[in-house]
Design brief:
Elements lengths: L14 H4 L16 E5 L27 H15 L3 E5 L9 H9 L6 E6 L4 H11 L3 E5 L5 H8 L4 H13 L6 E6 L8 H11 L2 E6 L10 H4 L3 H7 L4 E6 L7 E8 L4 E7 L12 E4 L4 E3 L8 E2 L1 H4 L5 H13 L13 H4 L2
Parallel strand pairs: 1-2, 1-10, 2-3, 3-4, 4-5, 5-6, 6-9
Antiparallel strand pairs: 7-8, 8-9, 10-11, 11-12
Helix pairs in contact: 2-3, 3-4, 4-6
Bound molecules: S-adenosylmethionine (SAM).
Length: 346
């Protein structure tokens, strides 16, 4: 049996030497930008305990980048700065009425090779095929437990079966490789890790376990609820009998090809912003639905890109806003997050 080597001091990629700026944009540590995470709305039909305290189903009246502005922004980033990868998030991106059109517009931009989405899975049963036909390539689905009662408690909606049917629809629509995202919270779902891994292995999915970040409703009790990666390995010790580390690159997850005690195989990824951050390899920026620009998920935003898009597109101003944000990007994220995940887009 091979156990994973857990070295919290291990650098992922040396910031100054390893991560070459993709084209124009880079921060002061030499980290280029190749990946945009775009939040399409704050709205989400779930209210997960660690993410948001209340359900928001309507954002009517809030300023949002419209479909043309989204296309202009991404086309510019791809053409001028070599952006190649976009992940749609939220809130829940499926709560945005124009989602299919947004996917189609982004997918048609030359240079964009990867269009992905993170979702709660509630609309996939009806819409997975439509999203795939529009050009969506991959999805991550949030799933913290397979126990229906606990699912209802954790998410505020009694809809586990609908999410699972959505997952099947996504597999059928070819939206793979599909990753299951589980935020691991002590006393809430850490005992679900073995069943989530078995489920992932049965369905040909990748299981991703995310360390709780001190943001949102559990921020004040973070110390008591946080489960570090090392503890997750312990919880999985009986279930996983072989761990083969995979190359990490710019991926936020430390990934392993694993074999389970019943001979099944799958991939497990650990997203460890708290025990072993992956800041050195960070090549991403985030833009919220209202245009707020976050060079780092856990740091303050630097302002908004809206003035560069309205009333007309001003590419020099957009560059200036992006450069100012990237110049201020810290080498490592602060310990506590400032924003609300549903606004930033986790
Ligand atoms: N609604 C979508 C979903 O359910 O995946 C996308 C948005 S959600 C904010 C994106 C990711 O952020 C999810 O994987 C979610 O579990 C994660 N997340 C939210 N709050 C978190 C926290 N405090 N710590 C760690 N991850 C968190």
């Amino acid at each position: 049996m091979r156990l994973p080597v857990l070295d919290p001091t291990r650098p992922v990629v040396p910031a100054r030497s390893g991560s070459r700026p993709e084209r124009g944009l880079a921060d002061s540590y030499g980290r280029g930008v190749g990946y945009l995470r775009l939040s399409l709305t704050k709205a989400c039909a779930m209210r997960c305990t660690y993410c948001r305290p209340e359900r928001i189903t309507s954002t009517r009246g809030e300023p949002m980048l419209d479909v043309d502005e989204i296309e202009t922004l991404i086309r510019f980033l791809a053409e001028r700065h070599g952006l190649s990868k976009v992940r749609l998030t939220g809130g829940d991106p499926t709560s945005r009425r124009e989602l299919t059109e947004i996917i189609a517009r982004i997918a048609s931009i030359p240079g964009i090779h990867d269009v992905a989405m993170t979702t709660n899975g509630l609309t996939l049963e009806r819409r997975a095929k439509e999203y795939a036909a529009a050009g969506l390539q991959r999805i991550n689905i949030s799933l913290d437990t397979l126990d229906p009662e606990r699912f209802a408690q954790l998410t505020g909606v009694d809809e586990l079966q609908r999410v699972l049917r959505g997952l099947d629809a996504a597999i059928e629509a070819g939206l793979g490789p599909i990753r299951l995202n589980s935020v691991v919270v002590k006393g809430q779902n850490e005992f679900d890790l073995p069943s989530l891994v078995r489920f992932a292995a049965q369905r040909g999915l990748e299981a991703r376990f995310i360390e709780l970040m001190p943001m949102g409703p559990l921020a004040s009790v973070w110390r008591e609820r946080y489960v570090p990666e090392a503890r997750m390995h312990e919880i999985l010790r009986q279930t996983v009998v072989d761990w083969q580390p995979l190359h990490q690159g710019h991926d936020a997850a430390r990934r392993y090809r694993v074999m389970l005690d019943d001979g099944a195989e799958t991939i497990i990824g650990f997203i460890t912003p708290m025990s072993c951050n992956f800041c050195a390899a960070c090549n991403r920026i985030r833009i919220a639905a209202d245009g707020t620009f976050y060079p780092c998920l856990m740091d303050r935003p630097i302002g908004t890109i809206l003035p560069a898009l309205r009333p007309g597109f001003d590419r020099e101003l957009l560059d200036a806003i992006l450069k100012r944000g990237l110049d201020g990007k810290r080498e490592e994220h602060p310990h506590d997050g400032y924003g609300v995940m549903t606004h930033i887009g986790g």
